[in-house]
Amino acid sequence: MKAIILNLSAWVMLPVMDGFAKYLSSTLPILQITWSRYFFTVVFVLPIMLVFFRKNLTWTEQPKLQLIRGLLLFCANILFFYSISIISLAKALTLAFIAPLIVTLLSPILLGEKVGFRRWAAVIVGFIGSLIVIRPGFVEFNLASFAALGTGVMYGFYLIVTRKLHNSDNPLLTLLLTGTVGAIVGSIIMPTVWVQPTINEWYMMFAIGFFASLGHFFLILSLRYADASKLAPFGYFEIVPNIIIGYFFFNHFPNQWHFLGLFIIISSGIYIFRREMLNMPN
Fold it and tell me: Do the domain assignments include residue 193?
């Protein structure tokens, strides 16, 4: 029960971060918002690591994978923050939910896992769900929707790399290194896009990093009490606070096509998780 509460708490924190990012996107560059997510994550996480988890600050056994993981998440955040600057939070997150499908699609190549007919069928059904949300040919072409799909693709690769790191590096160290990679890369880019924030914007930029680090910290704590495969389906709970924030603060509410696509994508994702938990290739 403790694992579920911590996991669900994480999926409440992360949509709050997205809400601040969407609000700031009307006045600040997307790259600057992304930089703040990483820079203030390091500002928040590093002191905690030094004070409470100093023993875990041993150097990574796989620095190349840590670098790749950090770059993948950094790119995923750029795509997602761009998408929510144009489309609703709920639509962007729904399209990003294809990440587990991407993992299944790529796992035979990158992880050497066997994927049977039923899981391939679930992947195809999930992509159909994303097409229902986008409805190409029926609504105006929107680059932001494809950026949200790109988020799911990048996050799928990120999850694959995370699996490879699971047995070698401490999760808290991985959290810190991921934030550090994003902060360094973002800081290199910042002089080309920087817009001087107001005091309130500085507060919101800090809040983005704070809620990002708090959300991921809760995720890590939840994994102490339950396996990742058992907690994975709870990640879809993120859509609930996402819809609430979108409705009350941005006057966005999903339509019937969005809900239908969301149902299909989540159903296919949960089916894949269940097959993985049972270690079934089909």
Answer: yes
Q: What would the pLDDT profile of 98-132 be if each residue is shown by its tens digit?
A: 888 888 888 777 767 677 777 778 878 887 888 78
* Among 223, 86, 95, residue whose Cα is nearest residue 156: 95
Is the torsion defined by CA of 32, 70, 189, 45 positive or negative? positive
- Per-residue pLDDT reduced to its tens digit, 1-17: 788 898 899 999 999 99
Q: Are 130 and 261 in contact (CB under 8 A)?
A: yes
Sign, Cα dihedral of 27, 31, 37, 42: negative
pTM of the model: 0.88
Q: How many domains does the chain have?
A: 1
Residue 60 lies in a domain: yes
Asked whether 12 and 212 are in contact (CB, 8 A), the reply is no
Burial of 190 (0-12, 13-18, 19+ CB in 10 A): middle
Q: Which of 171, 179, 151, 216 is nearest to 43 (CA)?
A: 179
Is 147 a member of any domain?
Answer: yes
Q: Which tokens hold the place of 107?
A: 């796992």
- Residue span of the structural domain in which 192 resides: 2-115+143-255
